[in-house]
Each structure stands twice: as structure tokens, then as C-alpha cells.
Automatic annotation (TrEMBL):
Protein name: Putative cytochrome c
Native organism taxonomy: Bacteria, Pseudomonadati, Planctomycetota, Planctomycetia, Gemmatales
Entry keyword annotation includes Protease: no
Boundaries of every Cytochrome c domain copy: 133-228
Residue ranges, annotated region (Disordered): 1-56
Organism: Frigoriglobus tundricola
Keyword Nucleotidyltransferase: no
InterPro entries per UniProt: Cyt_c-like_dom (IPR009056), Cyt_c-like_dom_sf (IPR036909), Cytochrome_c-type_DH (IPR051459)
Length: 288
């Protein structure tokens, strides 16, 4: 401690005088050693404070070397990440809008649909009225459906128990009528049946009522009745079997199913008189 201030009042030391020596020592670039003496570094070795290393700056160097501890927080999103995410969202919205397959609430509010006329009524089934027109329709159906069994020339397959159509009395002979033939094609034929002096038994004639329309069945019947050696309709303008005849036969049978489960047989056909007509008009007796 320094000597008392001579100018101060007796017995009183100023605060400055009391700390002057300490301040001088703290501000000295090279402080005394930790031991409180002026021993050199060589004498003290590597002890703390050796060689006057314990200056104020030296004491704080290790604190200044340390970095702040890492911490979790709500750091701002980098600008480039925000730009990329925004671009992806914009592209996704455009893609969905451009490829939505018109799944929109206003899809039927388009201006180009306002003047579209309403759908037409039910399609009217054709009703050909001449032998030639019916044959044209019937030939295509016969060659597609019937020829595989009865043959392209209507000769049948006797060895397979399939009767011929050419020259058959049930097609254009004394057993033929519109009512009988319509039912054979509509519902199929089962059981024995005599054709040209031979009884055919075992083969089942498949139904066509659930496959062909009425005018197509009339066309097939008119075709086989006026092809090969058969000549049942001499007048082109007066076909015996029309779509009206087939439709009337279907109506008369009512609940009978044209799916092959309820075919007609020989005895049932014979119960229909040759002059019977499902349309209510008297049918001409077949020529013998």
C-alpha cells in the first residue's frame, strides 16, 4: 500500500491513493507470478503464471476461444427452399387442373351443349315387306348361324342326325306354316321329327329368339323357304312370313322363355292348324 497522502487531512487516505498501487499492478503488461514474487519462467517451469503469462488478456483468452453453445429454435426458412416449394405447389395445381378428366361441377354447363337436340325416341325395328329384302337379311344370318349345322346348301347332316332344309315339308311343303316355323326358330325344337321320310331324333334345334330380332327371324325363314329347291313365295311383294308374324307368335306364347329351356316339339306343332295365323288373319293352306 502507498504512503498516506501528505496533503490529505490527518488520519485520512484518499480512495485513489489506496488503490493506485493495485491499479498500476493490474495494468502492468507483465504481472507478477501466481506466487506473488518476480521469479522468472525458467525458475518456475510451466506452472500457471510462469513467465508472466497471467496478464488480464491472457486470463481471458481461453474464454474468448469458446463458441456459443448450439441451441434449437424457430430459425427462418431459407429463401431458396421457399421458392422451390412454391414452384412445386404451382406445378401440381396446374397438372391436376389440366388432367382432371372434366370432373368439374360445371362440366355440363358448357355453352356448346345448350343447343344439342334431345335424344331421339326408341329405334323402330325394320319391317321389310318384300321377299327380296327379307332374303337379303336372312342370307347373312343363315350363313353366320345356321349353315354350320344345316350346311350352306341346306342339305343338313343326316349322319349327325341333323335334318335337311332343302325340300323339307316343314320348310316349304305340306307341313309348313308361319305359326309353326316362327315357333321353331323362336324357342328351338326338341324330340323326334319326320323329314323327307326319315325320323330325326336326338339332335336339338337351338332357339334364336334371344339372339335374333323379329325381322331377322322372318328373313331367315324367307331365305330358306325360297332358296335351293324351295319356292314358297312366288310373288315378291307378298312374303308369307314377315316380322309382324314372328312378333305375333312371340306375343301369343306369352311367358314362354326364348332361352332354350322351353323348346317346342313335333306334337305341339301339329296342334297348330296349317291355316292358323298369330296375326288373326287366315293363312293360306300350303300347296302339296
Amino acid at each position: 500500500m502507498s504512503e498516506p497522502n501528505r496533503d490529505a487531512a490527518p488520519g485520512v487516505e484518499s480512495v485513489t491513493d489506496m488503490h493506485r498501487a493495485l491499479m498500476t499492478q493490474m495494468n502492468d503488461p507483465v504481472m507478477l507470478t501466481a506466487a506473488g514474487d518476480d521469479t522468472t519462467g525458467d525458475e518456475r517451469g510451466d506452472e500457471p503464471g510462469a513467465g508472466g503469462s497471467d496478464s488480464v488478456q491472457g486470463m481471458h483468452q481461453m474464454l474468448m476461444r469458446e463458441h456459443a453453445e448450439p441451441r434449437d429454435g424457430f430459425e427462418p426458412v431459407p429463401f431458396w427452399v421457399a421458392v422451390v416449394c412454391g414452384g412445386l405447389l404451382a406445378w401440381g395445381g396446374y397438372y391436376i387442373g389440366a388432367n382432371s378428366a372434366d370432373f368439374r361441377r360445371d362440366v355440363y354447363d358448357r355453352a356448346d351443349l345448350k343447343d344439342v337436340p334431345p335424344p331421339a325416341g326408341p329405334v323402330v325395328e325394320p319391317n321389310p315387306r318384300t321377299v327380296d329384302d327379307l332374303k337379303r337379311i336372312g342370307e347373312q344370318k343363315y350363313q353366320t348361324i345356321c349353315a354350320s349345322c344345316h350346311g350352306p346348301e341346306g342339305k343338313g347332316q343326316p349322319a349327325q342326325n341333323i335334318p335337311p332344309l332343302d325340300g323339307s315339308e316343314w320348310v316349304a311343303g305340306d307341313q309348313a306354316s308361319a305359326a309353326r316355323l316362327s315357333r321353331i326358330l323362336l324357342y328351338g325344337l326338341n324330340g323326334p321329327i319326320p323329314v323327307k321320310g326319315r325320323t330325326y331324333n336326338g339332335a336339338v334345334m337351338p332357339q334364336q329368339g334371344n339372339v335374333l330380332k323379329d325381322h331377322e327371324i322372318a328373313g331367315v325363314l324367307t331365305y330358306v323357304r325360297n332358296s335351293w329347291g324351295n319356292k314358297a313365295d312366288p310373288e315378291n311383294a307378298k312374303p308369307t312370313i314377315t316380322a309382324d308374324e314372328v312378333k305375333a307368335a312371340r306375343t301369343k306364347e306369352g311367358a314362354r322363355k326364348p332361352n332354350g329351356t322351353q323348346p317346342v316339339n313335333h306334337d305341339e306343332l301339329l296342334k297348330l292348324p296349317l291355316t292358323y295365323s298369330d296375326t288373326g288373319t287366315s293363312a293360306a293352306a300350303p300347296k302339296k
